[in-house]
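Changelog-adjacent note: as of this version, every example in the card shows the full chain rather than a window. The one below runs 391 residues end to end.
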Amino acid sequence: MAGKLEIKDRFLCLPKESFFLFGPRGTGKSTWIKRIFHDSLLIDLLDPAAFRAYSSVPERLRELVEGNPGVKTILIDEVQKVPEILSVVHLLIEKYPFLQFVLTGSSARKLKRTGTDLMAGRATVRKIYPFMGAELGDDFNLENSLQSGLLPLILGSRNPDESLKAYAALYIREEVQMEGLVRSIGNFSRFLEIISFSHASILNISNIARETQVGRKTIEGYVSILEDILLAFRLEVFRRKAKRKLTEHPKFYFMDTGVFRSLRPTGPLDKKEEINGQALEGLVAQHLISWVEYRGRKNKIYYWRTRSGMEVDFVIYGDDGLWGIEVKNTDKIRLKDFRGLKSFQEEYPDARTMFLYRGKEKIIHKNVLCLPVEQFLSRLKPEQGLDIFFK
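Full-length structure tokens:
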């Protein structure tokens, strides 16, 4: 499929009022959004001339809008490049409530740093992520996804491996270095390599600080940067009506399995099975994050881990009920793999549970739905709840 990817429809439903659309670089948000709003008035702030014009005189936007009275939609691409333009957008929304502003960007961090409040709710916020398996349809391939990830930029590349290597460097240069988010690019690059070992694992800031030889507060800031530029996310521990003592630390994931693999150093002492397991769990995580976002944030994602070591990879809690999901990179169903789910069921008897694995059979075992992970990823859609897999 590499190098031949056609433009795909996305599951994200867009509002009719003004909105922000944030997404990591390479998710194809600009291409997709320009196709949808092809009749809009476009301001591309990646264009040097447009950047110079609006960064020096943001009020130019008002003149442009008033000079084109027939236009109903204004698309501003990479809005974080000129945060000051949002004050003008805010005034125009107040003055012309029939106008729709579509404001795209790869990060809200610069907007927050400049004191911008995302227009006090005048525009809703949406996020777009790498492809979901069901968005690709017949083009979805589990093995390829585990190696190269699901970023449209990478899937459309003729050389995915080389493109992935360049991806992190592009992010560091254009999102971190040029925006002045860190003082030392060398420290940040070393941090990226070290934190790659924490993908799909419990995040211990102190350990990373020690290995990076950088202060704990600096590492906390680095992790926040990754979240703000949408390169990574954390899952907190599920604590609702908890009876057992639970761990305190969150789990950490890069937003795409291919990005994880491009950053993770490998050598003769690294176990291939461990890295493949992290990749599989991360692939499920990025699908669940997308599913929750596109479903309208009716649910939240957590994980569950007791201090005694019992763990469930994902807990979904919200309008769709309470779910525990365990992911294993194995083609066999073994009793020991159910220990975490069994403990979770004892704690939450009303929870429904799933075991995702690399096998081929869909069965109910010990009151747990055992489902091939490829089937789960290819059928997960935001218009459907998780109970679809029990039918």
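Structural remarks: The chain has two domains: 19-127, 133-390.
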